[in-house]
Amino acid sequence: MMSIMFVSIITGLIIAPLSPKSAVEIDPKEHIYAHPDYVNGLPDLSSVGVKTMYEVILHGIQLSGDRPQFSYRQSSDQPFKSYTYKQVFEIIKEIGSGMINSGLKPSNETFFGIYASASVNYALCLYSAWPYSMVPVGIYDSLGQDGVKFIIRQSAVELIFADDLQRVKHLI
Predict the structure, then answer these.
(1) Are 68 and 84 in contact (CB under 8 A)?
(2) Of 14, 70, 77, 169, which is most buried, counting CB atoms within 10 Å of its CB?
């Protein structure tokens, strides 16, 4: 049987080999399933010495600084392009600094929205929260217009990143 190795895309750490077994039900009443290797919880990673997502990013740079963190391509007929851990860190600091320069405060009471499809740019906006203790809020088309408005009002986002004009028009 083949075993799958889980590698954290954030830290580059090899966590544990995953067995090919199917998920098992751990709560029959709620129908909650887990991988059989983790029915008693996730592994304790405190030995790594990271407690915050910002520390996870710094640890990833220490381990894999010049290695690719995000790889992407615009279409299937184009080659992959990559950002290294160090490049990602510089980009997210620039995005976060831009938010602060726009008047947002570096605080876990500062919420900003990301209204975009899953992509490298989405991840970069998401990661930009962590060096500045801000809180990213995902906004998705699948919520419908009422759901989008509800999320924006409830979270009191101060800024929204959008990946295309249709989404911006949807907000207005």
Answers:
(1) yes
(2) 70
